[in-house]
């Protein structure tokens, strides 16, 4: 009264033990959790790295990171010839201007809002052997007072230059020099200009800006 042998064999081939199904399900679940964890971790890492670069775009005045060219650095150093005193780079990016100034004998400081760039700048200064004379800080330039600096380097954008011009005119001493790269100040008359195109550098002596002579 049993089923024909052929039918029995077919039914047996389709039968999977419950334990095997559970093991396969656990493996799929584990791989699913692992995949979700990898994707989630990657997104968090990308967000952590990208946020400091993207956040400035949401500010009223955006100061993007554009590395200085070799010629720009040469022109800045040229404008510092025969100068002494402390130096600050406003929006120091990856630190190349500050490091070049430190190599030229200045005690140089860079202020940068992006923490990744600040950490990288510190690493570069250490690698170049000027970590004692090149310092970098995470800070918004509008919250820093620059009165203690004699040489100020600015890599700005047109939208910020009028406001920064007013801030520096109020804070700096008469013997200070401001060196602007890429874009000049709108109302100040430069004492010296060197370079051309995007590599142009303008130097302003604060004594001249105030109608005084050293």
From TrEMBL:
Ranges annotated as spanning the membrane: 31-50
Q: Which InterPro entries match?
A: FAM173A/B, SAM-dependent_MTases_sf
Family (UniProt)? Belongs to the ANT/ATPSC lysine N-methyltransferase family.
Report the membrane topology from the UniProt record.
Single-pass membrane protein
**Molecular function terms, GO-annotated:** protein-lysine N-methyltransferase activity
What name goes with this protein?
A: ATP synthase subunit C lysine N-methyltransferase
Could you tell me where this protein is found in the cell? Answer: Mitochondrion membrane
Function as written in the Swiss-Prot or TrEMBL entry? Mitochondrial protein-lysine N-methyltransferase that trimethylates ATP synthase subunit C, ATP5MC1 and ATP5MC2. Trimethylation is required for proper incorporation of the C subunit into the ATP synthase complex and mitochondrial respiration. Promotes chronic pain. Involved in persistent inflammatory and neuropathic pain: methyltransferase activity in the mitochondria of sensory neurons promotes chronic pain via a pathway that depends on the production of reactive oxygen species (ROS) and on the engagement of spinal cord microglia.
* Keyword Disulfide bond in annotation: no
**Species the sequence originates in:** Mustela putorius furo
A cellular component term, taken from the record's GO annotations:
mitochondrial membrane
Q: Does the keyword Transferase apply?
A: yes
UniProt GO BP: methylation; positive regulation of sensory perception of pain; regulation of mitochondrial ATP synthesis coupled proton transport
Chief location category: mitochondrion
Signal peptide stretch: none
Which of UniProt's keywords are assigned here?
Acetylation, Membrane, Methyltransferase, Mitochondrion, S-adenosyl-L-methionine, Transferase, Transmembrane, Transmembrane helix
């Amino acid at each position: 009264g049993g089923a024909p042998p052929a039918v029995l064999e077919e039914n047996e081939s389709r039968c999977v033990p419950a334990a095997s199904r559970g093991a396969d399900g656990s493996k799929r679940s584990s791989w699913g959790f692992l995949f979700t964890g990898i994707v989630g971790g990657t997104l968090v890492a990308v967000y952590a790295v990208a946020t400091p670069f993207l956040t400035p775009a949401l500010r009223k005045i955006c100061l993007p990171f554009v590395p200085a060219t070799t010629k720009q650095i040469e022109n800045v150093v040229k404008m510092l010839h025969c100068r002494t005193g402390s130096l600050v780079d406003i929006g120091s990016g990856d630190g190349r201007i500050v490091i070049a100034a430190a190599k030229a004998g200045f005690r140089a400081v860079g202020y940068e809002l992006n923490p990744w760039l600040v950490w990288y700048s510190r690493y570069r200064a250490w690698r170049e052997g000027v970590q004692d004379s090149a310092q970098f800080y995470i800070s918004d330039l509008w919250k820093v007072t620059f009165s203690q600096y004699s040489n100020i380097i600015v890599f700005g954008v047109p939208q910020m230059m009028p406001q920064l011009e007013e801030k520096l005119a109020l804070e700096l001493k008469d013997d200070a020099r401001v060196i602007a790269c890429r874009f000049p100040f709108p109302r100040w008359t430069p004492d010296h200009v060197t370079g051309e195109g995007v590599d142009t550098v303008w130097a302003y002596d604060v004594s001249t800006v105030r109608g005084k002579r050293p």
